[in-house]
Batch of 2 targets.
Target 1
Amino acid sequence: MKEIELFCDGACSGNPGPGGWGTILRWNEHEKELSGGEADTTNNRMELTALIEGLKHLKEPCRVTVYTDSSYVADGINKGWALSWKRRGWIKSDKKPARNPELWEALLTELARHEVQIHWLRGHAGHPENERCDALAVAAARRYKK
């Protein structure tokens, strides 16, 4: 299996508002940057989308090390929240509906294709790839700002 590093970040101008996402995929000396956005979204939706789009870009099952500054994404997977929400029909333990179920479903589908480890890192702390993903996300969000 190829070993891939995936760095991802989301951004939103207002929450909700115009948003963007940025992803860097790295395999050996090869690197690919991806980005996109939406006119009316939330930061959490963009954080999820950044990871989903990065994983979707991989053409074959890979061993993927993910770096995200989103505790929502990292905890949702690492602490098993998303799987629990899915088992309960996208209802959280407090009996309230889980937000973004279609994105969590898409993420769980992508994660099942790969061997994935998700690492949380502090955002805006000088991590070069995280800063680059943030810049990609912010630039994508600006394209949707009125």
Target 2
Amino acid sequence: MEIIVHSLDETNKLGFHLGQLLDKPSLITLEGDLGAGKTTFTKAIAKALGINKTISSPTFTILKSYEGKYRLHHIDAYRLEGTSQDLGFEELFDDDICVIEWAKFIEDFLPKERLEITIKRLNEDSRLFIFKPIGLKYEKIVEELLK
């Protein structure tokens, strides 16, 4: 399931729409090269959840949490590559909404059911969003998103 957006505004609208469809618990994973728009997309999800704080990449802190309609945990797993220790994220996954950038680095710690999104940069303004829902809940969310 794929969507092409042609501007930052369209990216924000897509992320906002997804955020409106989420309830807790939800797990969204984001993959894509640097500059693909992972954090921008997360900001739009946060806005839909009523979060007014500035959302920034948690690259150095690994985890940032925000309060809104639901609690949102924004995780950047890039620096966790190769870790074998228990990360203690299970509680977050079970209770809240989590968006994880570079989730492939902590694949073994993730719940099976989730919405995997890959963002590919097509040019300066356009992005290809590839949605892979795993589980009935996420299949329904993607169906609604693509309407």
